[in-house]
Every structure is written in structure tokens, then in C-alpha cells.
């Protein structure tokens, strides 16, 4: 990784994007507000006393304190998943030079879901590690397939071709998922809740299982950031700056697939987070990947956490799954981006 990045780091001058400090402060404040809202709101609103008991008095036996214990794990898990999806979206957009790339748009989430449902149906998987392994394998194979199909023909992997390839692949894989589930009632029961995308069943075991994958993905993304800036200039220009573009794309893609595959395995196929987070941050601070990647993680954590809160409030006394909320918000935005004349390669 050092040989891949160092030639670029020596030639690119470091400059802080305009308004970066302001955006960071506002983002951290918004993150704090989201955390408080996630702890306080749900099918029952938790007061300050119960919130403090749940956070600082583990022995408290009140109903509010017991609810708080569950909400703390749920909030931490949603922050981790949102941050991971934000980074994955930023990496996929940079690698493909496609401003509307996202795990859900490119069909990567559907590929991960197909492998998971196949594991449930044919191999009776049940542990988190088994889910993660199959989801990452499915995400990787689908990503390679979609990029290969989208690269065929004149012009190479253009944004529209990649989106069409992703949509077609996702539709085909969704049909396979239905074909596997429909004859198997027990598989449908286990898969039905998971496929909506939810952080409601989060626990500390899921979080500790997820953290190593999250840390690895973050480290790879940060180490690749400077070289991804050069890649935005084009393969020839990046090669002239000393970047091995093939190796860079492989490493960054592995990080993106690892992050979105792990999230899909544990929380289900939650869509549009990477697309929304990266676009918002790019509009605010520009395209420099050294700042775009960490800020996309912050934005992704905010978007997913507040979407979870909205789903709980609107669905009270039950809840709307967070995957439904993000799809309701993200789908119209994707349509607007796709029809804009300015949508082109980065």
C-alpha cells in the first residue's frame, strides 16, 4: 500500500477544502443530536432520568432503563453501519468514476442477499461470521460482474451503462431470491425480516463482530484516498503520477465490498446511504477524497441513524424498517441525478 500511495502523496499539495471546519462542526453537532434522538424516541419516549439510569446505572431495573440498554446497542450499530455504507459509496464512486454509484444502485446488495438466502436454504447457516462470509462473496462477485458488463462496448464503463447493468443484474438476482424462497416457508420466514434492512435487532455481539471489518475498511480507504484523487484525473494521468491503477481499483474495491457486504450480512440490504452521504459531502466540501471519505462516513452515520428514528416514530407503536425509509428518500433523489444532464464520469 505504501508503494501505491507514496508517489501521489509527494506530488499532490495538501489543502483543506473551503468551509471544511464549518461542515465538520455542524456534522458533529448533527451527529450528537441524532444520538440523543435515537436514545430518546421510539414506541415510547424515554425521559432524561431513565436515559441517565440506562447510561450510567447498569443496575437500574426500571422499564425505561431496560429500554435504554437496548437502544444504546441499536444506536451504536446504526452509527457503525451508516459510516461503513458512507465510505463504501465514496469508494465505489471513486473507483468507477461514476457519480451515482452505490452498493444498492449497482446491485451489490442484491448479490450479497442472494448468497445469504442460498446459505440459509441450502447450507443452514446461522452464525454472524457465516452471514458475513457469504454476503461479502456475493457482493464481490456481483460488483465484478456489473463492472464487467458496464465496461462492454464503446466508451467503457460510463455512469448510465453501469446503472443499467446494475439494475438488470439486481432484477435478475431478485428473481433468483424469490425462486429460492417461495417453495421454502422456513427460509421465507427467516429472510423476510432481514431483507427489509433493519438495525432493530442489533446487539453487542453484532457490534463486536462488525468492528474488525469496519476498522480494516476504514484504514484501506484512508490509505487509498490520495491515489483516488489522482484516479479522478484519468488512468493515464494517474499512471503518470506513479499510481498502479489496477492495484488501486482492486484494493479500494475490496474495502468497499468488505464494508457493504458486512453491513448487508448483519442488517440486511439497506440502500442509498452511500449515494446520499457522498453527494451531500461532495457538494459541501468538494471532491478531495482525503476529506470526502471520512466526512462521508460521518454523513452516512447521521443519515442512517435519523432514518431509523423516523421509522420508529412514524411506525409507532411498531416501526418502519430503516431500509424502507432510506429507499423512500433515496429513490427520488437517484431519479433526479440520473436525468440531470450533468451526470457524467467524475
From TrEMBL:
Broad class of the protein's primary localization: membrane
UniProt keyword terms in alphabetical order: Cell membrane, Membrane, Transmembrane, Transmembrane helix, Transport
Localization annotation: Cell membrane
Membrane-topology annotation of the record: Multi-pass membrane protein
Pfam family, one: FecCD
Spans through the membrane: 20-42, 72-92, 104-124, 131-150, 162-182, 210-231, 251-279, 291-310, 322-339
Similarity comment: Belongs to the binding-protein-dependent transport system permease family. FecCD subfamily.
Record-given protein name: Iron ABC transporter permease
